[in-house]
Write the C-alpha cells for this entry.
Amino acid sequence: MGGRLCREELREEKKRSPTRDSLTSSEKVKRFIVKQFGYNVLSLARRGLKEMPDELWELLELEKLNLSLNNLKTVPPQLALLSNLVVLNLWGNQLSSLPPEIGQLSRLRVLFIYRNNLTEVPEELGACTQLEVRYQNRFVCFLFRKKLSLFLLSSKQK
C-alpha cells in the first residue's frame, strides 16, 4: 500500500534529478561520510562503481572505507594518499591485483579483499605493520607481532 506509493515517488524523483546521488565532486562524496565509534567512515558499497571516484583522494581524514560489492577492476596507486585508513573493505569486486602503494597505508589494521580475482598480494603489504587481519579468496592471513603467516585453505572451506 503505502510502500508502493513511496517507491513510485522515489522513481519519479530520480527521473527529475538523475544526478542527485552521482559522485561528481568531493563535497557530494563528503556528505556520505559519517562518524561511527569515533571513526570517519565512508561507505560506497553496492553503488555499481566501475572505478574509484577521483574525489576520494581528497578525503584525507577517512579512517574506514567500504567499497565492497561494486564492479571495481583496479585500485589506483592514489590509494596511498588515504594515509589515515584503518579499515579498507574491497570484498566482492573484480580485482585481479592490488597496487604496491597499499604498503604505504601504515595505519591499516583490517583489509577485506576476499571474493575478488586475486591470486597474490603485493609484497609491500608486509610494510603495513599494524595489519591484524587480511582476508583473501582462498587465503586467510594473520599478522601477529610483525610475522606474516599464510594458510592455504581448500576451496571446500570457503
Notes: The chain has one domain: 23-157. The beta strands are 33-36, 39-43, 64-66, 87-89, 110-113, 133-136, 139-144, 147-152. The chain has a mean pLDDT of 78. Residues 2-16 form the longest helix (15 residues).
